[in-house]
Specification:
The chain has two domains: 17-35 and 44-237 and 246-267, Ferritin (Up-down Bundle); 316-354. It contains 14 helices and two strands. The protein has helices at residues 14-33, 46-55, 68-87, 89-93, 102-127, 133-141, 158-176, 185-213, 217-236, 248-253, 261-279, 304-311, 318-331, 333-354, and strands at 289-291, 296-298. The radius of gyration is 22 Å and the shape is globular. The termini are far apart. The structure holds benzoyl coenzyme A. Benzoyl coenzyme A binds at residues 76-77, 80-81, 84-85, 88, 115, 146, 148-149, 168-169, 172, 175, 237-240, 245-248, 251, 257, 261, 311. Benzoyl coenzyme A (BYC) binds next to helix 3, helix 7 and helix 10.
Length: 355
């Protein structure tokens, strides 16, 4: 079960990784080529220039002029994304001390640590838009910025760690691969690295479930129970249906989002069906069936009223997640203070050497 243990088509996220590599090549080529749309002339309308860069599929960089609403939308989305990575450490962190073997514990530790790293890349990308990390953290702690709905559900069994890897990281990849081509350079570049790591995360979740489904009857039942509980919340991660999505149209026009919420949700369902078959698990949807004319699966939509309730703070674990984050932040004060003191000391030393 280790190494290249699935054929290219079977490998969870296998095809998507190819798209990440293509996006990375496109980013490099664009950087080497320089801007086809040159710098704005002295009399050029900045808004027209911005529109031209977007139209030419080139990147907006922090130094560039951008509409205030574009900047605000990016801060909202990137911050929400960063907060999700940080809060997302909690449900899995819950199992680090109870992982069933030393090897599982080491893998889970590394994965949770990766999520912290993703949060850092994303906070750094948001900072290029003129907001500080302290401000962003404050907005999370006082509940004025959101994080993904999915992390308000509990992890009741070890199989939930597998389901999070397979489904939640799987949904995250499907959502994030197109963000590698986002029009804002720092976000696109952060996404390339994040997606590569998420693809490993998805595989580790798939592998946990594969082990359970090939174990005892009780282990297989545990895996099925986890899928039953995580399936619809994972579908809801993609956001409200297109008809109710307030930001999609504008974000797509700005090429921040490349596909709508419903398009990505459909892509995720289509990807999971085959993988569930390999696992020997049943997706808990009696309405799931292949639609020949659409060349996609028909499926039952998640409960969007539940999604809205969870987003507004009334999910099974919202309070617990927020309290835990606030406590961790308070308990980490001394670490932040020590890091600032250390940086000041080093700067002072450097100055003395230079003098
Ligand atoms: N949860 O107009 P819409 C991960 C909000 S995975 C909470 O469609 P947009 C990880 C939305 O913010 C998760 N809120 O919005 C995996 C908006 O509210 P406001 C993180 C949600 O932005 C494993 C309102 O509903 N991934 O990191 O065009 C381990 C209307 O929605 C949700 C990302 O953040 C939700 N599920 O589209 C550890 C990816 N869905 O702000 C970590 C980047 C919607 O108007 N984000 N809302 O009050 C995106 O791609 C987009 O922001 C979304 C939503 C697709 C999520």
């Amino acid at each position: 079960m280790y190494g290249n243990d699935f054929s290219a088509e079977d490998a969870p996220g296998g095809g998507l990784l190819g798209e990440v590599e293509a996006a990375e090549v496109a980013l490099r080529e664009a950087a080497e080529r320089g801007r086809r749309v040159g710098a704005p002339g002295p009399d050029q309308d900045l808004a027209a220039y911005f529109a031209e860069v977007i139209e030419a599929d080139q990147k907006i960089e922090p130094r560039d002029w951008m509409p205030e609403a574009y900047r605000k939308t990016l801060i909202r989305q990137i911050a929400q994304h960063a907060h999700s990575e940080i809060i997302g450490m909690q449900p899995e962190g819950n199992w680090i001390s109870r992982a069933p073997s030393l090897k599982r514990k080491a893998i889970l530790l590394a994965k949770v640590q990766d999520e912290a790293g993703h949060g850092l890349y994303l906070y750094a990308a948001a900072e290029t838009l003129g907001i500080s990390r302290d401000e962003l953290v404050e907005l999370l702690l006082n509940g004025r910025q959101k994080y993904s709905s999915i992390f308000n559900y509990p992890t009741l069994t070890w199989a939930d760690v597998g389901a999070i890897g397979w489904l939640v990281d799987g949904a995250a990849i499907v959502n994030q691969v197109p963000l590698c081509r986002c029009s804002y350079g720092p976000y696109a570049r952060a996404m390339i690295r994040v997606c590569k790591e998420e693809s490993f995360h998805q595989r580790q979740g798939f592998e946990i479930l594969h082990t359970l489904t090939h174990g005892t009857g009780a282990q297989k039942a545990m895996a099925q129970d986890a899928l039953d509980r995580w399936w619809y919340p994972s579908l809801a991660m993609f956001g409200p249906p297109d008809t109710d999505s307030t930001h999609s149209a504008q974000s797509m026009a700005w090429k921040i989002k490349r596909f709508s919420n419903d398009e990505l949700r459909q892509r995720f369902v289509d990807m999971c069906v085959q993988q569930a078959e390999i696992l020997g698990l049943t997706i808990p949807d009696p309405g799931l069936r292949w639609n020949e004319s659409r060349q996609s699966y028909d499926f039952t939509q998640p409960d969007y009223d539940e999604l809205m309730r969870v987003i507004k703070g009334d999910g099974p674990c919202n309070r617990q997640r927020a309290e835990h984050r606030r406590r961790a932040h308070d308990e980490g004060t001394w670490v932040r203070e020590a890091a600032v003191a250390y940086a000041a000391k080093r700067a002072e030393k450097k100055e003395k050497v230079a003098a």
